[in-house]
Please model this.
Amino acid sequence: MNKVECKLLEFGSENYKKSIDLRRQVLRKPLGLDFTSDDLITEHDQFHFALFYNNELQAILLLKTMKDINPGVLKMRQVAVNPEFQSKGFGSILVKFSEHWAIESGYKSFELHARITAVEFYKKLNYEEIGREFLEVNIPHIKMIKNLISER
Model:
């Protein structure tokens, strides 16, 4: 039987390093980008959630606190699913797992900058579009939010 497990990763761990490789493959290389050491060092105080399928890391997302702006909000970023496992529900499982963790930890809402190609994915998870389309890393994005309090 195939086993799916979601968990929080420790910054700097072997699984964290694997998550960098997955994010690089899915999010950076297609844009001709890579991570700098400065990009990665700023992740030490973020929450790194991973989905494992048969003990292999297949999806990752990061949550960044907005404590200086709005302490009840987490910004979701760097969501990546192994291309072999996309459209199989793993991204949804991981997002829902991170939402449950956030609710249990006292956070009130999520915000994110969705690539236009991912907007429908987030809409299915009850995220709302806010504002107008904008460019980030030279591709179109839209800001999206979700009130976690209504999920309780």
